[in-house]
Prior knowledge:
The complex is a heterodimer. By secondary structure, chain A is mainly alpha-helical. In chain A, 69% of the residues lie in helices and 1% in strands. Chain A has a two-stranded antiparallel ribbon with strand order 1-2. In chain A, a hairpin with a 2-residue loop joins β1 and β2. Chain B has helices at residues 50-58, 100-110, 115-128, 144-157, 174-191, 202-208, 226-231, 236-241; strands at 9-19, 25-35, 39-43, 65-70, 73-74, 85-88, 162-166, 194-199, 211-216, 219-224, 246-256, 259-264, 269-274, 283-288, 294-295, 305-315, 319-326, 329-337, 350-354, 360-363. In chain B, the strands form 4 sheets. In chain B, strands 6-7-8-3-9-10 form a 6-stranded mixed β-sheet, sandwiched between helices. Chains A and B meet through α22 and α23 of A and β6 and α2 of B. The structure holds adenosine-5'-triphosphate and magnesium ion. The site of adenosine-5'-triphosphate has 12 residues of chain B, from α1.
Amino acid sequence: MLAADGTPLKASLGRALRRQKIRALALIAPLLLFVLLTFVVPIVSMLFRSVENQIVSGTLPGTVVALESWDAESGNIPSEDVFQNLFFDMFNAAEAKEHTKLGTRLNYENTGLASMFRTSGRSLDDVGEVFQDAIEDVDDQFEDGAFWFAMMNGAGGEDLLRERRERWVDLTGDDMRGDVGFVPSAEIVELLPTTAAAYTDWAIWTVIEDEEVVAEEDPWEAVYAALVVDLENPATGTAIAAYEGEGAQALQAIAAAEMPKADFTAAFADLDEDWVKTDVWTTIEVYSSAYTTGYFLNSVDRELTPDGVDLRPDNERLYIKLFGRTMWMSMIITLSCIILGYPVAWLLANLPMKSANVLMILVLLPFWTSLLVRTSAWKVLLQQQGVINELLVWLGFVDDANRLILMNNSTGTIIAMTHILLPFMILPLYSVMKTINPTYLRAAKSLGATNVTAFRRVYFPQSVPGIGAGSILVFILAIGYYITPEIVGGTDGVFISNRIAYHISRSLNWGLAAALGTILLVLVLALYWVYDQIVGIDNVKLG
Amino acid sequence: MADTQRDDAFVEFERVQKSYDGEILVVKDLNLALPKGEFLTMLGPSGSGKTTCLMMLAGFETATHGDIRLNGESINNIPPHKRGIGMVFQNYALFPHMTIAENLSFPLEVRKISKSDREAKVKRALDMVEMGDFGGRRPAQLSGGQQQRVALARALVFEPELVLMDEPLGALDKQLREKMQFEITDLAHNLGITTVYVTHDQTEALTMSDRVAVFDDGRIQQLAPPDELYEQPQNSFVAQFIGENNTLVGVVTKIKGDTCEVKLDSGEIIDAKPVNVGAVGDRTTVSIRPERVEIDPELGPDAHTLSAEVLEFIYMGDTFRTRLRVAGNSDFIVKTRNRADQRRYARGDTVKIGWLPQDCRALDA
Ligand SMILES: Nc1ncnc2c1ncn2[C@@H]1O[C@H](COP(=O)(O)OP(=O)(O)OP(=O)(O)O)[C@@H](O)[C@H]1O
Ligand SMILES: [Mg+2]
């Protein structure tokens, strides 16, 4: 088919429509952008959080690299090199007070790590002080910040400065910008690499965070430890002998003197003997990559081990059951809402205006009271000494000794949530039923259908879109509910959202909360898809 | 009024009254009998109770008083789905979630007719209204006229003996309406169905019906075949409602056999045929059809004539339409055929008008 100008009709129609669409889009663009930002950004950030795991590599960057050569299978603890890196990483982290966060994070995977990190971080100064005292005993110039500065400062070490600054950024999350007033000299970096790195770390921290001047301050203990580490390298001894730069004499004196042995493995074993156990290191290694499936595995009761994915121990399995319960109970609640809501919506749509208005107010009334009030009211009703039980006992339906347990279990959750979500079923149903012309029923009857057939074949099918809309609304709301289950659900009646809320506000395990939330989102989308396949989404109508 | 107690009556209303609210009677004393095969139209202004009567017959409203009989049996207590009455609704009421074929098959399914029979009947019914190719479509995919035909087919597919139609053509444009009017009457007569048809369009009523029941104020004002209704209206409401009509009001001064003398309020005296007047001295409205009035008449010596002033002279092609002021009525219309020798009047001309006494009907005031 061709249009008047000879172009294909389809193409020219498409062009005409496109222009309209673009104009329409431009009109709503600001709002759309706003919605996108406020709606999509939190979701994306949640998705990101559920896999993000930069805390290990950010807090212990050197350790993580050194640990790569360690073989967890061997059964040995990692080498001294790893412990040495751990010392310097932890020292910085302890200064920035970031080590406890890492401890908390690793504690999700291996209980006990939180306190281990906390106590160890506190004592690292003592470990370094041994070396500081030994060095200062040999030459007291090392007590002087200006001397250190003169020795370390120079030119050519810009790369090192940049690299160490980035580490601080990763560790603290601050931008760490500003002039340090110090550049490691290339000669020293070559001669004393560990010391140069430790000194640069200190310099950056001192200037940017403490706002002091490098030349006027004594370096921290880790720098002295680093010097000892450097001097233990036999190659360094010969290089120092040939060194002629600033502080050459003092360095040579130190090199010649007897220094305490730099044995960080022993030092950490001293701090906490768990440091020399393989399972701690296994945990660190498993979670050392920047992204992890750990939270998701945790969400489905699995855990990551060096051998791959495994089920968690029986007593730690929780989430699959909770997901299942959430789904199942939400379905029951949705079904109850359909059963209770359908007749009410029908009445609303078919009563004379006046009575329908009164009924509508009754339906909407719950919206005017706080959710907490409503739920608490259910508590009063459902208790074993509550209104319902009292009534049943008084009427003789229930024995006084066997009062019904209607609360602190799933029954309580179902009853209270059905009540609370009922309006969300009634309103879409009502608005759909309102559009069903009563003459359809008359027509059906005039064609010979009984009341039941007329309802089943003519009225009900036309109200299905309302049921669909209501069900989706109620189900999705139910799946994410947590206040009501929290109050009347007890332990048997809580939902997955209660766990999510717990992880967000109590355990502060946001990664796990995000993973649980993501799974919930995926489940809802999956159900939505299933619904679309079975009923068809165009069959959903809000009026 | 027509006889209400016919022995061969197929549908019969007897002294039926209906009130919705217990205060106002919307149907007051309805008596109506129609024989099998008749096409009866209920015609009347909006709110006159036509739909109500239809709904009572279909069983969706119950009569407050009186008896409705179908085939001699009282149906007051038979539920709608057992009455076997086909019905075409004003808005068609085709089920939107079913295809056309499913819509037609519905009444057959509830009657438990076998699948093959159903298909045959549906096809026949669709072909009958020339909609055979549309069985797979949904009602929303049809035009108004097509929906109308489907509604008709659905009302007929289960072969009811009585079909009720409530303004089925109200939503259609004029041309389509005229075509459908013809098709409906044709179908009804060919199938021998008794039809009760509701409309407030008088042309529709006159062209389609065997008999027309003119409703007003909850009563049948006149029940008669179309020609009788037009030419011999029984009261001034019918005279006014059906076709164009000129009225003059006055007092009866003399009644002699089938003529009477009326003294108009303006003082003139005219002859009329007493149809619905009581005694001498009663007030009356006389009614004359515009085409029965002659201007400058050549009537007998005893005929009364009136003088009139021309207010407007309109050329209508086949006719001329002259608006006159007659005896104080400035809306007096006269229609004359467009003959070669017809004089064309101008505004302000004074003329004489007259008519045969039998064309001038003296009705109730
Ligand atoms: N369900 C009802 N409840 C109360 N009053 C009603 C109801 N249906 C109709 N009426 C009243 O009954 C009277 C007759 O209504 P009906 O529908 O029979 O009129 P109709 O002749 O069909 O008019 P139309 O040509 O406008 O369709 C009207 O005054 C109307 O207001
Ligand atoms: Mg009506």
